[in-house]
Amino acid sequence: MRISLPINDKNFVESLIPQKFPFVMVSGISEYSEEHLVSGFEIKEDNIFVHEGVFQASGLIEHQAQSVALHTGYKFYLLGKEAPTGYIGAIKTFEAETLPKLGDHLISEVKIINEMMGVTLVEIITKINGQIIAKSEMKTVVK
Predict the structure, then answer these.
(1) What is the rounded distance in angstroms from the CA atom of residue 8 to the CA atom of residue 47?
(2) Would you call 18 helix, strand, or coil by DSSP?
(3) By C-alpha distance, which of 66, 24, 14 is closest to 46?
(4) Is the dihedral of CA 114, 49, 95, 97 positive or negative?
(5) Contact of 66 with 138, CB cutoff 8 Å
(6) Strands 36-42 and 119-128, how do they pair?
(7) On the CB side of 38, how many CA atoms lie within 13 Å of its CA?
(8) Cα separation, 99 vs 63, whole angstroms
(9) pLDDT tens for each residue of 95-113
(10) Rounded to whole angstroms, how far apart are CA atoms 20 and 25?
(11) pTM of the predicted model as reported, rounded to 2 decimal places
(12) Could you report the per-residue pLDDT of 27-66, keeping only the tens digit for each?
């Protein structure tokens, strides 16, 4: 079965990443290529990173890292293979201009800078309504 973009099927998206509820911080893919991915996520009240109606910076970092995992998971899905488990190897930079609130819809663009021997260097920009709210550069590592 082939899935076409955009993808907003919660179960399918969750099948592409190793995290499970309540730790899932991605809900869709709108664009994909070998070098980039655009993911989405809506902030809901039951989210473990929401405190007093605000999605915390740690949640933003996790959303961005899971967006990278989603890129890997979808790439392996297209190849007909099971995706490897990965983790954040290092966060080089992280800047948050503002923190999202309940009901906000995050759109994150992952740009693959370099990928070698299971280590991927990425830049991630997260927006709400077209406005950049967070940027990061991190390394992710697959087992």
Answers:
(1) 18
(2) coil
(3) 24
(4) positive
(5) no
(6) unpaired
(7) 9
(8) 13
(9) 999 999 999 999 999 999 9
(10) 9
(11) 0.94
(12) 999 999 999 999 999 999 999 999 999 999 999 999 999 9
Among residues 124, 132, 67, 140, which one has the least CA distance to residue 97?
Answer: 132
Tokens of 48: 């473990």
Q: Which of 44, 53, 38 is nearest to 24 (CA)?
A: 44
Residue 97's Cβ-side half-sphere holds a number of Cα atoms within 13 Å equal to 9
Residues 6+ apart with CB under 8 A from 84: 72, 76, 118, 142, 143
Q: Which residues pair with 118 in a beta bridge?
A: none
Q: Which residue has the tokens 């990965």?
A: 86
Structure tokens at 135: 């940027």
Check if the beta carbon of residue 118 is closer than 8 Å to that of residue 66.
Answer: no
What tokens does 113 get? 């800078």
**Which amino acid is residue 33, in one-letter code?**
S
123 close to 113: Cβ distance less than 8 angstroms: yes
Q: How far apart are CA 113 and CA 103, in angstroms?
A: 31
